[in-house]
Specification:
The structure is a single chain. The chain is an alpha/beta fold. The protein folds into three domains: 146 residues, 3-Layer(aba) Sandwich (Rossmann fold), CATH 3.40.50.80; 156 residues; 90 residues, Translation factors (Elongation Factor Tu (Ef-tu), domain 3), CATH 2.40.30. The protein contains 16 helices and twelve strands. Helix 1 crosses helix 3. The longest helix has 38 residues.
């Protein structure tokens, strides 16, 4: 362990310092509350549609109860599928308020419920049409698929959604490259699109109410428009406007390189701590984007990303040639000054997870001693000279922790026998509970840091993390 700078006494931020952070926090809280309220209102709306159409009265008999329950599960699944698509539409307000990791977590939870309700809808509605006879279920399903308008499309959409769900299971993700997983995940949009005609052509609640049908069409159109605007049109415009190209590739450590870039107004494209999805034109597999964080505070003309060789695409980054044009999507992530609630900050990173924290250490406003960075690495520290320069010129406190973790579930290395992770953290940063804590690294390691920070008294609102995983 090497402590580059000492930590001076605590300082109290002025009202002027706190006001911008509190204002952003209030806006983000309003967006989060509004998003949650909109989801619950959508679910209540489909419940109302079901009840108004006699859904409760139909529960009195076995076969009609099966059909009625099939209807409400289908409506709820459709509403959640709508929310799921919107969560991944990269809407800037949602990205800023929730952050990428939190949005992905909500997306997975909503998707799980949507899929489970979809399966329940498929089983129950067919069982009800089979007059409650389970033995007649296969034949009834076959007849419905070929005779009801939109049903064949809905089955195709269900198959696409099954593919997405199966490849989202952790065990399956471990066997797939990120690029392959991402490509397969796009089938979720196809599944949602194929399900829509079935809802409007055969859904009893829509057929009886033209106004409700018009609203449903409008909502779906707006959601798909959001996908086209934020995931297609905006990235295309930003790539054209900023005109990014590679200027050079510099080795940082064995298997790690920094790609230096130039463009126009790059400081308006991405903030320190954020990441973009990069496509280096001409590189093999360039059509599949790779998420890399900026590892320095962008200027108007220059930026940098640091890439560890963990797959074919990231390994190929070392061979990028000057002049290579770049297409980007983003920026994403809330590991920025936007999440800040305190004057003092603690940055904790491991491996490639140090990249966004290195950018934050340069881009954040702080006085000497108000910012501390803890780096975990196995053999070769990253950005050593740059961090030493920040320590000398800006008073950044730097703690370097070499070696492997001392045990699974711990985020520190050997040499601290008798001290748990919380005590070790308090030993390095006694006032950790008074700081915003930014964490980035592999998922299991990041979780162990979070647990230690929470145990050390850091409020959850002051803990900001991103996993280097998918």
């Amino acid at each position: 362990m090497t402590v580059t700078t000492s930590l001076p006494g605590s300082s109290v931020p002025s009202a002027a310092d706190r006001r911008p952070w509190r204002s952003r926090a209030r806006r983000d809280a309003v967006v989060r509350t509004g998003a949650a309220a909109a989801l619950w209102l959508a679910l209540l709306g489909v419940d109302w549609m079901w009840a108004a159409d006699g859904g409760l009265q139909a529960l009195t008999a076995w076969d009609t109860a099966l059909t009625s329950l099939g209807q409400i599960t289908g409506l709820a699944s459709a509403a959640l599928l709508l929310a799921q698509v919107l969560l991944m539409a990269r809407v800037p307000a949602l990205e800023a308020a929730f952050g990428r990791d939190r949005l992905v977590g909500i997306h997975r939870l909503v998707g799980l419920w949507s899929f489970n309700l979809l399966v329940a809808h498929l089983v129950l509605i067919t069982w009800g049409y089979a007059a409650g006879s389970i033995t007649a279920w296969p034949a009834t399903f076959w007849d419905l698929m070929w005779q009801c308008p939109g049903m064949l499309l809905a089955v195709g959409g269900t198959v696409a959604l099954v593919l997405v769900v199966v490849t989202s299971v952790r065990a399956a993700r471990r066997r797939l490259r990120y690029e392959s997983w991402h490509l397969l995940h796009l089938y979720g949009y196809l599944g949602a699109a194929l399900a829509l005609p079935h809802q409007l052509w055969t859904g009893q609640q829509f057929l009886a109410r033209p106004a409700v049908t018009a609203v449903w069409w409008t909502v779906w159109a707006l959601v798909f428009a959001a996908v086209l605007v934020w995931r297609v049109a905006l990235p295309a415009w930003r790539s054209w406007h900023h005109r990014i190209q590679v200027t050079g590739v510099v080795p940082e450590a064995p298997g790690v390189v920094s790609v230096h870039l130039m463009g126009r107004r790059l400081h308006r494209l991405v903030e320190p701590g954020q990441f973009l999805v990069w496509r280096f034109l001409g590189q093999q597999g360039w059509t599949r984007g790779k998420p890399y964080s900026v590892s320095s505070a962008p200027t108007s003309r220059s930026a940098r990303v640091t890439v560890a060789a963990v797959g074919p695409a990231s390994t190929a980054a070392a061979d990028l040639q000057p002049g290579t044009r770049v297409v980007v999507e983003g920026a994403y992530g809330r590991l920025t000054r936007r999440a800040r609630t305190r004057r003092k900050v603690l940055l904790i990173g491991a491996g490639s997870g140090l990249a966004p924290l290195r950018a934050l250490a340069e881009g954040l406003d702080y006085a000497p001693g108000e910012a501390v960075l803890i780096e975990r690495y196995r053999e070769h520290p990253l950005f050593a000279a740059e961090l030493d320069h920040l320590a000398a010129t800006r008073g950044l406190g730097v703690v370097r922790l070499p070696g492997r973790r001392r045990a699974d579930g711990s985020w520190v290395g050997p040499g601290f026998d008798g001290d748990d992770d919380e005590r070790v953290l308090r030993g390095w940063v006694p006032d950790v509970a008074e700081r915003d804590v930014y964490v980035c690294g592999p998922p299991a390691w990041t979780q162990s840091v979070r647990e230690a920070a929470l145990a050390a008294g850091v409020p959850a609102a002051q803990l900001h993390s991103e996993d280097f995983g998918w």
